[in-house]
Amino acid sequence: MSTSRIRKEVDEALLAFVDRQRPALLAISDDLAPLLSALDALLTGGKRLRPAFCYWGWRAAGGEDGADGADLVQAAASLELLQASALIHDDVMDSSDTRRGQPSVHRRFEALHGAQSWPGDAEAFGAGAAILLGDLCLSWSSEMFETCGLGGDRRRRARAVYDLMRTEVMCGQYLDMLEGTRGEATAATALRVVEFKSAKYTIERPLHMGAALAGARPDVTAALTGYGLPLGIAFQLRDDVLGVFGDPAETGKPAGDDLREGKRTVLIALTLERASAAQSTALRRRLGDPALDRPGVDELRSIIEDTGGLAACETMIERYLGEAERALRTAPITEEARRALAELAVAATARST
Amino acid sequence: MSTSRIRKEVDEALLAFVDRQRPALLAISDDLAPLLSALDALLTGGKRLRPAFCYWGWRAAGGEDGADGADLVQAAASLELLQASALIHDDVMDSSDTRRGQPSVHRRFEALHGAQSWPGDAEAFGAGAAILLGDLCLSWSSEMFETCGLGGDRRRRARAVYDLMRTEVMCGQYLDMLEGTRGEATAATALRVVEFKSAKYTIERPLHMGAALAGARPDVTAALTGYGLPLGIAFQLRDDVLGVFGDPAETGKPAGDDLREGKRTVLIALTLERASAAQSTALRRRLGDPALDRPGVDELRSIIEDTGGLAACETMIERYLGEAERALRTAPITEEARRALAELAVAATARST
């Protein structure tokens, strides 16, 4: 299937799944409707990257479209609910105001509280609702995966990947937060976070899940790691650059939002390693300032460029992307999968969408 | 198996599961050790009520001890990880300081932050770590359930119960929070919350899960609802009474903690329905005051007693418990299961443990 076709089928599978849950929720209470609309709004956005990698892991290992392919799409789409959960909880933890160009879920419920003039604490209500909706998405992800229709030993092996991936991404998120609060991340410690929080979660494990569902041989799984892990690192480094320099219309977040949140990314670590005392002081002083305005963002952007931090990060992206491309060239997979994965590699690390 | 024997086997299954995860986490980073110790501490406590009901649902439907019994214990124990997740997230949402007689998970990580003198925001770090550990427990619960060893159609049917239960408890929690923030719960709306957040989650669904894993006939499942649903309501009403009047040594929470958190329980609704204008004003003024001290707790306790709210709640507990006991008498289950479920009904609604 083409990328746009995969996206369309994943969208349809997600909508069908949520539509199966909808009547059960509304039968409990009409008061649950805002949970469903918040989820509908969130699921409208997103590039469906993880399902695409899951699909191509399946195809790379010999899986085909058709009846099994529809089941595979459901399993792949379940990754979007996992991602929705991660985004919702992440935004609570980071106190982010926006996501995918819309208010974040906790802000949405805070606004509902205000609009209804309820007497309690609006911020606590927003955070609580977001925690619960994230929990619901996490539960629904496993429900959607487990009921995908692909059974037996293949699902058992894919489940082991799915379970490992969930553990890895949650541990990676914790380490990311830890580096953020300690404020002493080096490029090396930041890369370790990237590996678990992002590279495995976004690319390597989705590929492995699809491959396991197709009954992949070990050499195929290993080749997908050779491609997916460096590509996943390059993907996250690109995301870090976009978090500072990206166009809000494309990132769905305000300009320089990662700076305001004080994220201790590889880009920041590379910058600090290269900064003069004055540059370092200026960067550390403003990084994580929730009130950072546009001139403040511009000042920090200049430091990241002037130190050579940005150039060093771009060099790393090229290096990891090159590594992924080399691994892909010799991978024991079909030519069709090789071409599609080469295109996905470019799309996942592009400077703009 | 006896209640103490079930408890022991569930404890062992939980420990074995966490011990299988431990090396994977520590291989990612030693920095993850505090997540494991927080979970170890939390899992030390708890009455293992849900696994006990799951076990007796299995036995009631003809399941036996032995090899399949060990697999059933793993499935039953997975409910404790779901409960751990719910408690951890609940304590974040309620800003609770204690759980099971120890600091709540978010306070524990807040303290770690302080002890390490990290520069970032300790409270945000604590909440973030708790959100992530709750997510990990939720993931691990489904992993533990899915890998229990009982396969085929029985697990498929039990999974449908498990999935429904997760949706119900999360929706129930949202409605609970909503009633709390709106501050206008009647006994009827509070009872609806109790049904989903507590009665189904704690008793009816665990019974159904065990029964489904044993391949229960529909009449057995229906009889377990007849017993489990009213018992679950009686259980939560007892918990509400203990949340106001209970001994901290037994509840693991400070005296009157539910009053400090402003929980809109059936007990509070029954009290407000019976209160004079002065009593109502006094109760509404102090309910949910985080600074409520011991004399304040005593004042509110007096109002709950003097209005007859407490007596009305005790009457409801008796009525629901009686309903459960009548349903149990005619349930098409073994005498052994009937006896065990009768004992569990008493234990789940006892005035003290």
UniProtKB/TrEMBL annotation, chains A, B:
Record keyword Metal-binding present: yes
GO biological process, one term: isoprenoid biosynthetic process
Keyword vocabulary terms for this entry: Magnesium, Metal-binding, Transferase
CDD domains recorded: Trans_IPPS_HT (cd00685)
Gene3D superfamilies on file: Farnesyl Diphosphate Synthase
Needed co-factor(s): Mg(2+)
GO molecular function list: metal ion binding; prenyltransferase activity
Statement: the UniProt record of this protein carries the keyword Transferase: yes
Stored PROSITE patterns: POLYPRENYL_SYNTHASE_1, POLYPRENYL_SYNTHASE_2
Taxonomic superkingdom: Bacteria
PANTHER family: GERANYLGERANYL PYROPHOSPHATE SYNTHASE (PTHR12001), SHORT CHAIN ISOPRENYL DIPHOSPHATE SYNTHASE (PTHR12001:SF85)
Stated family: Belongs to the FPP/GGPP synthase family.
Name listed for the protein in its UniProt record: Polyprenyl synthetase family protein
Source organism (scientific name): Actinomadura spongiicola
